[in-house]
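Could you help me review a protein record that somebody else here produced? Do not assume that whoever made the record got everything right. The record follows directly below this note.
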Amino acid sequence: MNQPILRLLATTNYKNLYLGPEAYLNQLNILIGSNGSGKSNFISCLKFLKDCLIATPDENRGVSSFEDAISKLGHDRVLDVNIESPAKVSLSYCFSHFSQTNNPRSVILDFKLYADKQKARVSISEEYLYSGENLRLASLWEPFYYYKLHETELGKGVLSVYDTPSQDTTHFEPLDKISTNSLGLLMIPQLLEDSQFPPENTPVYKIRRELIEFISKWQFYNANNMNLNLIRTVEPKIGGSDIYLSASGDNLPLVLENLSQNIDFEDSLNEAMKSILPKTRRIRPVRSGRLSLTVEWYFEDIKEAFYLNEMSDGTVRMLCWATILHSPLLPSLIVIDEPELGLHVSWMPILAEWIKKAATRTQIIITTHSPDLLDHFTDRLENVLCFYSENKTHFSVKSLSKEMLEPKLEEGWQLGDLYRVGDPSIGGWPW
């Protein structure tokens, strides 16, 4: 698979999460750890970046995407409570396999937030976009910088510009009037409008477009936020272009309608649901009235269709996960918090296989507290990230490995067994 992925995340002074050294991510990532160990804060870092790059209705009232995103993140409470305010919070994201001309490379977006609790203010104090494989190597030699913003003076920066039409070499040109209330990655086109440099004469032009397109397709789900009542009762209007399930799941019939144009998806979905309810014959979106959609569920030996309001909570949840994970049009990143909620234990191996299969086509991050689900990732220990604490105040991340757990695996332990008993190798217990 040679498509972009989020390769690492690093943080400093961010809430209770200390990712220095950085946390490396794979195609498939299973996050485990006790409640309060930083898993939600980790995911919030990813949501924050997407929110910074997505236009919001409040922009018409003078509220930028960044200001909206920082409000959702906790505003000045993003700063570690143990750090005296004001101080800087660092967030760094590395993306692999982005193309610049014909040369795939990794790109790092690195920025610092200035958090002042006394003034209830958070702004961007530094921002860099550069090529490199990881953050530590960047300190050993000078990487290629697409831009540096606010480095020496707030509101000012430099941008790489090609020297010649052949685009072999570059030099820095100054930028000014750079807002500290918007992410520079989003503002580049506006900044170039006020400069003498055509966008195509800058290396950032193409990579920026690819990066924003990639991040804007990230999708986040939390089983606690799936609104089963809405999923069962809301009948969305025909004609919408939705291909991704919403966070609440309320557009399920519309997503099924749009994805069912792909015959393979319909077959795949029906087979998936047969694995949990063997007598399933067909699931299909149908018109309800003239302009709305609902979902019919047919079973063998029963002529009449069933509707979602007649199905169990767990069954509806599994239909949502199947729709997300079997889609022919997967998001560039799927994040699911605790997908096991409300599901029968016998469905855990099925859910695990859906997750593993989808991870061969896109990047996936799952958080879980379910030993029963973890049992089925014993064969993927290198994909498990454990959140742990050295001092009970700050949490870091470590990757598991077969070598780390080999003695217990040889005794017949599964990953979920170790989680159940609070084995210190993998954490999971708050003491």
